[in-house]
User: Which sequence fits this backbone?
């Protein structure tokens, strides 16, 4: 059997690994907008969408996948999006100057901010590094609030910077 796009098999029979491999082989170039359930597993779905959009060869793919995961996780863990029936909306917009990531949540009591991890928590602490990573790895980031929720966004350059001690050769 052939699907509408000419692939063998039925659309429902394509396995998760095969779907991920196919997505990585054919990266999309237009913006992606998805509404995801407000559950921790949505961070993995967001990473998969970023990979599908950018492809493995994109110089910012790893950074974007990490930051998307952090922002979606924060939205689920720290806002009303993580309550039953909550949702998170992810927008990924690639462009010549980089990738714009936007995560809309259902709002919460606090405003996203970078807070240093207390030294007594130690390097083995698993939580509390999300916005520290966003602040360190994104070119810019911010948050916009409204009565309906909040959008936390970041922009990641489309090119990776050369290490500070490397030489540029022509």
Assistant:
């Amino acid at each position: 059997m052939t699907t509408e796009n000419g692939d063998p098999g039925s659309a429902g029979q394509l396995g998760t690994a095969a779907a991920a491999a196919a997505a990585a082989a054919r990266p999309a170039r237009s913006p992606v907008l998805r509404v995801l359930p407000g559950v921790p597993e949505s961070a993995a779905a967001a990473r998969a969408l970023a990979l599908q959009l950018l492809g493995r060869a994109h110089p910012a793919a790893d950074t974007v996948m990490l930051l998307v995961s952090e922002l979606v996780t924060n939205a689920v863990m720290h806002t009303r999006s993580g309550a039953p029936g909550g949702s998170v909306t992810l927008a990924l917009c690639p462009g010549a100057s980089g990738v714009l990531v936007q995560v809309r949540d259902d709002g919460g009591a606090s405003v996203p901010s970078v807070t240093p991890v207390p030294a007594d928590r130690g390097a083995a602490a698993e939580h509390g590094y999300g916005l520290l990573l966003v602040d360190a790895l994104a070119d810019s980031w911010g948050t916009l609030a409204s009565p309906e929720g909040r959008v936390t966004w970041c922009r990641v350059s489309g090119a990776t910077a050369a290490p500070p001690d490397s030489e540029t050769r022509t």
Observations:
- The chain is about 30% helix and 25% strand.
